Amino acid sequence: MKNRDFQEYQSPLITRYGRPEMLYIFSDEYRLRTHRRIWIALAETERTLGLPIKKAQITEMKRFEDKINYKRIMEWEAKTNHD
Question: How do residues 38-50 score in pLDDT, each as one tens digit?
Fold first, then answer.
């Protein structure tokens, strides 16, 4: 048995059956990166539908796609109590 904290909930999905690839898919990082990709796709689609979104704005979103400020996200989630 691996060392673990008996004070916190442990999911069998993770402790027994989780493989690194699967654990990454369920990670906060993967969730945040997926949200970024969705926002970019949404902006691109809205632009093609005629909304006033400039190509430069989408380019800027893409430039920061992988630059996630985890500290700021943790602060925001603590403030709103929501992800």
Answer: 999 999 999 999 9
